[in-house]
Structure formats: structure tokens, C-alpha cells
Amino acid sequence: MKIAVIGATGYTGAELLRILSMHPRVEVSVLTSDSSAGKSIAQLYPHVRDIYKHTLQQADPAEIAKQADLAFVALPGGLSSGIVPGLIEAGLKVIDLGGDFRLPAPLYETWYKKQAPPVELQQQAVYGLSEWYAEEIAQANLITNPGCYPTATLLGLLPLVKNGLIELDSIVVDAKSGVSGAGKALSLNTHYPEINENLKAYKLGVHQHIPEIETQLARVAGEDVTISFTTHLVPMVRGILTTSYARLKDRWTTRDLLDLYQQVYEGATFVRIRPEGEFPATKEVATSNYCDIGLYVDERTRRVTVISVIDNLVKGASGQAVQNLNLMNGWDEATGLGFVPVYP
Ligand SMILES: NC(=O)C1=CN([C@@H]2O[C@H](COP(=O)(O)OP(=O)(O)OC[C@H]3O[C@@H](n4cnc5c(N)ncnc54)[C@H](OP(=O)(O)O)[C@@H]3O)[C@@H](O)[C@H]2O)C=CC1
Ligand SMILES: CC(=O)N[C@@H](CCC(=O)OP(=O)(O)O)C(=O)O
């Protein structure tokens, strides 16, 4: 299958190049860039010299359709809406890594403060949380790949919500990300002297992933859900750790819930449930497509704490996008993704 990467010069684009070079069933035929069209990809990214010999092209849907069957779109928020309709119309399948298609139009416009994409296309888009929506993903032409924080948060909370075990108005999520989550563009907030040896909360009450997580929890719960969600920037390059708290309706033990999580994720290659008393760290999944989950029930307060970790660029973006490519094609979900985390 021939693949185009739109926005190949960004961080998720670079991660797609790394992963797709190890995928046995695809050939990357088109790489695009707006600001560097005409240059070779190796001029931008010397680490792929001799692995990719492509010249970067401008993203023209009709031209891309002549050279590829499926496009990954890895553009900054708000730009996918401009190109995805043309790609779909030209007959390509699309996996969009940005947030443009993840929310219904009114919610999107409220939280992103941008114009929503065409409603029909948004409604066609299938939410690509691979472990939960594999059947729908297999039938889709357009996948809206989940955000990085929502991936970690939802994989950690959905088993509780699906089984009706928690008070839905009690959910609090404390989330931390490495700086590559902000993409390649330069900004004061992610400047080295600002971020190194520092830890800070950001986007309180306005983070664009709040409505995404709430919409997906509500979908499984069958009723509205609101959450408290705080994100923090951590001085590391890769990794997300989410700590989610909720009040249990009944007196469950840690062991009971771990058994339940094992059942829910039985057969899911990329979700690993930690044994009782063990909690995952970001380094234990770095550069891999794993989401590792540990949990603890505080029987005094009847609260459950769920810890999830992912690599934001892999399971939080490009790795899950390739997992979805596999599901769309009926291939094993782990094809091309069987690499071990890099440690230490
Ligand atoms: N970083 C992460 O951990 C995650 C990111 N995402 C989402 O994935 C998408 C890509 O993120 P990321 O790779 O981090 O972003 P980057 O900022 O690193 O890269 C963005 C890419 O878009 C291109 N681009 C920038 N401006 C324009 C423009 N005006 N027109 C066309 N192309 C443009 C850039 O290329 P050039 O300048 O060469 O044209 C670059 O290739 C975003 O929507 C992001 O929210 C989702 C999950 C996790
Ligand atoms: C560290 C950092 O800044 N992370 C980004 C998450 C990027 C991402 O996944 O967001 P999209 O929904 O836009 O695709 C943020 O918090 O906005």
C-alpha cells in the first residue's frame, strides 16, 4: 500500500517516518511540507538520510491521489480541515492526527476557537481509539486519531465507566507531558531556559482535550460526563503520565479491578496491566506503542487512582495512527509496531 505523509517535517511526521520504515506492508511514496517543499527530507532530518530519499512536495490532493492510497495528515490544529475534504474526494483514505474532526462542530468551535470542518465529513470520521473501536475503524475512510492526553486518560478510565463502577461526577485527571507534545514550532513556553528544571501547569479549564475526553466518556456511559482536568509540562522530551481519580460506587478492591482490567484488555497487544502494587513510569514505554496501566483502590476513601503512561508521539499519535492503518486493512494490529521500549 502506498502512503503519503502530509506534514512530514513535524514531530509526529518524523515519528511516522521512523515507524513506517519498519512496516512490511507499506511503501512511503509522498512526503509533503509547506515551508520546505523542494528540499530533500534528509536536509531537514539527517537521521533519515539514505533511508528516505524523497523530495518534499507541496500538498496537492489531486497529485497525491496519483501516487498514494492513504494519507496520514500531521498538520497543526485547524489546517486539516483545509486539505482532508480534497483528499477524501480524490479517493484517498485518511488518518488525521490533529483535532479538527474529533468533536461535533459546536463543541469544536467553542473549544478550539476555529471554524469547524464540513459537518458531513466530521460525522463520517471514526474516532481512532484502536482498542475500543476496532470494528468501526476497519470500515472507515476517515479516521480522527485521538489526542495524546485523551489516549492515556480514556484507556485508563473506560473500563470503569463501561462497567458503571464510578460516580461520573467525581472524575479528576492530573496529566503530565513531555515537551515534544507541543510540536516542533518554537515558543517561549517550550524554550529550554523556561522548561528545564521546571514544572508547570497550563491551559487550566480551557484545554482542548477536556471536551474530547468528556465526549468519549459520555459515549460509553450513555449520559453526560464532566471532568476536572489539569495538564502539566515536564522537562523531558517524550512521555505522558495521567493520574485519574474517581469515587467508586461500591467497595471494590485493587485486586478486583485489576482482574476486570485484565479481562477488558485481554488480546489487546498494546495495553499492559501492571500487577498489584506496581505502577508504570514513562520510560517503561518510551518510543513504543504500549500504554501501561496500574491502579490502586484506597479502601478508606473509596477512591480509585488509575495511572496510565504512553509515549505521546507513538501511542499518543503516530503509533496509534499506524495501528489504525493496520485495522483499516485487516492486518494484525501490531504489524510494524512490534518494537521494544528503549530503556534506559
Ligand atoms: N506532538 C504530539 O505529541 C502530538 C501531536 N498531535 C497532533 O498532530 C498534529 C501534528 O503535530 P506535530 O507533529 O507535533 O506538529 P509540528 O508543529 O511538529 O509539525 C507540524 C507540521 O505541519 C507543517 N505546517 C506548519 N504550518 C503549516 C501550514 N501553514 N501549512 C501547511 N503545513 C504546515 C509543518 O511543516 P512545514 O513547516 O515544513 O510546512 C510540519 O511538518 C497536530 O495537529 C497535533 O495537535 C496529536 C497527538 C500528539
Ligand atoms: C505538551 C503540549 O503542549 N501538548 C499539547 C497536546 C497536543 C495534542 O495532542 O493535541 P491536539 O489535540 O491538538 O492534537 C497541548 O497540551 O495542547
UniProtKB/TrEMBL annotation:
Protein family according to the UniProt entry: Belongs to the NAGSA dehydrogenase family. Type 1 subfamily.
Domain (Semialdehyde dehydrogenase NAD-binding): residue spans on this chain: 2-140
One Gene Ontology term, aspect cellular component: cytoplasm
Enzyme class, UniProt record, top EC level: oxidoreductase
Catalysed reaction equations from the record: N-acetyl-L-glutamate 5-semialdehyde + phosphate + NADP(+) = N-acetyl-L-glutamyl 5-phosphate + NADPH + H(+)
CDD domains documented for this protein: AGPR_1_C (cd23934), AGPR_1_N (cd17895)
Active-site feature positions: 148
Organism of derivation: Collibacillus ludicampi
InterPro entries for the chain: AGPR, AGPR_dimerisation_dom, AGPR_type-1, NAD(P)-bd_dom_sf, Semialdehyde_DH_NAD-bd
Gene Ontology MF annotations: N-acetyl-gamma-glutamyl-phosphate reductase activity; NAD binding; NADP+ binding
Listed GO biological process terms: L-arginine biosynthetic process
Subcellular location as annotated: Cytoplasm
The protein's name: N-acetyl-gamma-glutamyl-phosphate reductase
Record SMART domains: Semialdhyde_dh (SM00859)
Keywords: Amino-acid biosynthesis, Arginine biosynthesis, Cytoplasm, NADP, Oxidoreductase
Pathway the protein acts in: Amino-acid biosynthesis; L-arginine biosynthesis; N(2)-acetyl-L-ornithine from L-glutamate: step 3/4
Keyword Zinc: no
EC identifiers of the protein: 1.2.1.38
Domain of life: Bacteria
Described purpose of this protein according to its UniProt entry: Catalyzes the NADPH-dependent reduction of N-acetyl-5-glutamyl phosphate to yield N-acetyl-L-glutamate 5-semialdehyde.
